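Structure ticket #2291
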Amino acid sequence: MALDRISVECYAGARADERPRRIKIGGQEHLVARLLGESVEEAVSGKARTRRFKVLTDEGLVLEIVHASDGAWYLESYDPASA
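Resolution: structure written out below.
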């Protein structure tokens, strides 16, 4: 499945880019109301780390986004029926 590249603004706490705050998809900005889930996956080689987030936006959309080890953000799934 091809992932769509998106722009994400994060809250930066003790670590850089801890959790997403705003997500821009196709020119439209969505505010993150709540973090529903988070996971970290590491490659077998141990060099690549992927962080996945499931968020609820202020419009009621459920988005699953991926922060790749190269620093890029991608939209994995988008549930427009949840709005």
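Closing remark: Strands lie at 4-11, 19-25, 28-42, 49-57, 62-67, 73-79.
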